[in-house]
């Protein structure tokens, strides 16, 4: 069966010292505490190696927030999937709406990134989600279908390593959460889109996370929905106690 997952997305927050401190706090809080989900923290590239050292032996897994669409070479400033993998990370967020919106990442680039992540044995946390206008004009199901279908050149085996994160853009960092019903409807839609291409087994085994102003006070209701398999957490992942509160929503 598919896994429940709570993943933190630190975005461009924390200095190295602050990040190490936060990781330390989290791994201490998780010590000797059984959790009913996988817990991943996705941190800035600069923090990966140090955070890996801090969380070694804990229940925390490590992820990056992006990787290059290129394998290696003359791409100044870029970080490749193999570099990410070599830090000890197991996951990488791809296609976050901030990358799509501010850095113009398109479906073709995201497929290339996904392929490189998979080739380097990283599990992509692949983000999809509509903007407010698309929610309001009713095109949101088609928009998200298109974003998921961008991955449909993957083989079934490759696709079975993908985690999807549904993050309605209007809910990210706005304090405005999708209702649990809106999340459930979209997650069921995404699972159906996946099953049309890859069949029920793969669709049923794909973890689909909700993201967008998820916090301890709403996580339980969201995660109780049958097709919501956890969360991708931005702001609330920067405070250890809040992140723990969300992890504990799986009890
Ligand atoms: P938020 O961000 O929890 O701060 O809304 C979620 C995300 O962008 O991954």
Describe the protein in words:
It is a single chain. This protein has an eight-stranded parallel β-barrel, surrounded by seven helices. The protein is of the alpha/beta class and 251 residues long. It has helices at 16-30, 48-55, 81-86, 97-102, 107-119, 132-136, 140-149, 156-159, 180-198, 200-205, 216-223, 240-247; strands spanning 5-9, 38-42, 60-64, 91-94, 123-128, 163-166, 208-211, 230-233. Helix 1 runs parallel beside helix 2, helix 1 (16-30) runs parallel beside helix 12 (240-247) and helix 11 (216-223) runs parallel beside helix 12. Helix content is 43%, strand content 15%. It has twelve helices and eight strands. Helix 2 links the parallel strand 2 and strand 3 (60-64). The structure holds 2-phosphoglycolic acid. The site of 2-phosphoglycolic acid (PGA) has 13 residues, from strand 8.
Fold blueprint:
Layout: E1 5-9, H1 16-30, E2 38-42, H2 48-55, E3 60-64, H3 81-86, E4 91-94, H4 97-102, H5 107-119, E5 123-128, H6 132-136, H7 140-149, H8 156-159, E6 163-166, H9 180-198, H10 200-205, E7 208-211, H11 216-223, E8 230-233, H12 240-247
Parallel strand pairs: 1-2, 1-8, 2-3, 3-4, 4-5, 5-6, 6-7, 7-8
The structure holds 2-phosphoglycolic acid.
Provide the helix percentage: 40-55%
Radius of gyration, rounded?
17 Å
Largest sheet, spatial ordering of strands:
1-2-3-4-5-6-7-8
Low-pLDDT residue spans: none
């Amino acid at each position: 069966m598919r896994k429940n997952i709570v993943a933190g997305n630190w975005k461009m927050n924390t200095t190295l010292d602050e990040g190490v401190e936060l990781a330390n706090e989290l791994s201490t809080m998780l010590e000797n505490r059984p959790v009913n989900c996988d817990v991943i923290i996705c941190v800035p590239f600069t923090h990966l190696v140090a955070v890996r050292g801090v969380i070694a032996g804990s229940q925390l897994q490590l992820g990056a927030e992006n990787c290059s669409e290129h394998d290696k070479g003359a791409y100044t400033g870029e970080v490749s999937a193999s570099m990410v993998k070599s830090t000890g990370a197991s996951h990488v967020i791809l296609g976050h709406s901030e990358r799509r919106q501010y850095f113009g990442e398109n479906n073709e680039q995201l497929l290339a990134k996904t392929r490189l992540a998979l080739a380097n044995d990283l599990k992509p946390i692949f983000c999809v989600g509509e903007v407010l206008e698309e929610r309001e004009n009713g095109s949101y199901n088609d928009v998200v279908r298109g974003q998921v279908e961008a991955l449909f050149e993957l083989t079934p085996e490759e696709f079975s390593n993908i985690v999807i994160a549904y993050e309605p853009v209007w809910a990210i960092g706005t304090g405005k959460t999708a209702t649990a019903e809106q999340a459930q409807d979209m997650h069921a839609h995404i699972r159906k889109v996946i099953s049309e291409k890859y069949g029920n087994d793969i669709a049923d085994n794909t973890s689909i996370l909700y993201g967008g102003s998820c916090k301890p006070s709403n996580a339980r209701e969201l995660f109780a929905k049958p097709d919501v398999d956890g969360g991708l957490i931005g702001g609330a992942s920067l405070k250890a106690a809040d992140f723990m509160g969300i992890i504990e929503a799986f009890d």
